[in-house]
Every structure is written in C-alpha cells, then in structure tokens.
C-alpha cells in the first residue's frame, strides 16, 4: 500500500481550516520587530554622526516588511 502522507487527509479539511493554517504559518515566519529605547536611539544617532564625519564603514540592520536585513558600507552626506 502506498502512503500518501498528508494528501490523504486534505479532502477532509474545510477551506476555513486550510486558510487558518496558512495564516498561522505566515505568522510564525514573521520576526518580532525589536524596539529601540530612547537611550539606544541616542547612542545610534551619535555613532552614525561620528561615522559620517570620519567616513567609517558601518553596518545597519533594519526591517523590510517583517524580515530583518543588513547593509554594510560607508555613508556620506549628500550635497
């Protein structure tokens, strides 16, 4: 006998259940955004200004949608 795994049970699931499972899966894939407190924000701002003045390489981590991404480079003031 061939085991069909989860496909065997797919016919018994209501469309609402499939939708709820899909939403749960998407929710679990999202990362919780980290919040900066006022002290961390001020420190970040101070370090960024220092890096701009000294033309030092920095790495920034930010959120694009719900996913955390990083970018590294030398930032300069636009004229």
Could you characterize the architecture of this molecule?
It is a single chain. The chain has 79 residues and is α+β, with helices and mostly antiparallel strands. The protein is 46% helix and 20% strand. The protein has three helices and two strands; from the N terminus they run H-H-H-E-E. It has helices at 7-10, 15-29, 38-54; strands at residues 57-64, 67-74. Strands 1-2 form a two-stranded antiparallel ribbon. A hairpin with a 2-residue loop joins strand 1 and strand 2. The longest helix has 17 residues, at 38-54. The protein is elongated and about 65 Å long. It starts with 6 loop residues before the first helix and ends in a 5-residue tail after the last strand. The mean pLDDT is 79.
Summarize the structure.
The chain is α+β, with helices and mostly antiparallel strands and 79 residues long.
SSE blueprint:
Elements: H1 7-10, H2 15-29, H3 38-54, E1 57-64, E2 67-74
Antiparallel strand pairs: 1-2
Which short descriptors sum up this protein?
79 residues, alpha+beta, two-stranded antiparallel sheet
